[in-house]
Design brief:
CATH architecture: Beta Barrel
Largest sheet: 12 strands, mixed
Number of strands: 15
Number of helices: 2
Pfam families: ADC
CATH topology: Acetoacetate decarboxylase-like
Protein name: Acetoacetate decarboxylase family protein
Distance between the termini: 17 Å
CATH class: Mainly Beta
Helix content: under 10%
Order of helices and strands: EEEEEEEHEEEEEEHEE
Structural class: mainly beta
Organism: Rhodococcus chondri
Number of domains: 1
Strand content: over 45%
Length: 211
């Protein structure tokens, strides 16, 4: 499975999760920045955009219960709608680890989380840590749209999936501190443009393999 060292875990006996779609109520902080010079080294290859996109998510409910998550894409895959290619993702739910790996080919690992995802928040794993502090810069606004994922597949091609989101958001600046063997190179520490999802509903559909 395509991943960086922060998402490495050879365990295979995860509790089984239900198949997609996965509906959920969420709160989240997202941020983005121009990719670091060597970010493409950790990307999917092929045609990409030099933008790093990351997020901290608090799933208030889901088919595997509530859990929290961090994920990041070093660069975006080019397309009519640019897609995240995610080598780094961690959660605090064992069934969610199974779901990510089995249903979407996402290299989920376990981590611990603390704080409020829309204010000060931290995620800590084996040899890495990311902290965020979100400062709103606008009143609440409606939001609706989607995210696309395109995970490289062994033997060529990729697995594509999408998530649809509706809710309320605030524009924000997000101060980030990222530590880890690769995160310190491509997930830039500093203050970045971002967005706080104050409330929302999300539905993540199944992945399909394409060439």
């Amino acid at each position: 499975m395509w991943r960086v060292p922060e998402s490495t875990d050879e365990r295979t006996d995860w509790p089984v999760s239900p198949p997609p779609p996965w509906p959920a109520r969420v709160r989240a902080t997202l941020w983005w920045h121009r990719s670091a010079p060597d970010a493409a080294e950790y990307g999917p290859g092929g045609a990409t955009l030099p933008i790093t996109l990351a997020m901290m998510v608090d799933y208030l409910d889901s088919p595997v219960g509530p859990y929290r998550e961090i994920l990041a894409s070093p660069v975006l895959r080019r397309g009519l709608v640019p897609a995240m290619a995610v080598p780094f993702i961690a959660v605090d739910s064992e069934p969610s680890v199974h779901g990510g790996r089995e249903h979407w080919k996402l290299p989920k690992v376990l981590a611990s989380f603390s704080g409020d995802v829309t204010e000060r928040f931290s995620a800590t794993g084996d040899g890495w840590k990311v902290t965020t502090a979100a400062s709103p810069r606008s009143p609440e606004l409606p939001i609706g749209g989607g995210l696309r994922f395109a995970q490289p597949a062994e033997g060529g091609g990729r697995y594509q999936a999408s998530a649809r989101l509706r809710g309320r958001c605030r524009l924000a600046r997000v101060t980030v501190d990222a530590e880890g063997p690769t995160l310190s190179h491509w997930l830039r520490s500093g203050t970045h443009y971002g967005m706080i999802i104050t409330s929302g509903t999300m539905r993540t559909g199944p992945a399909r393999r394409v060439r």
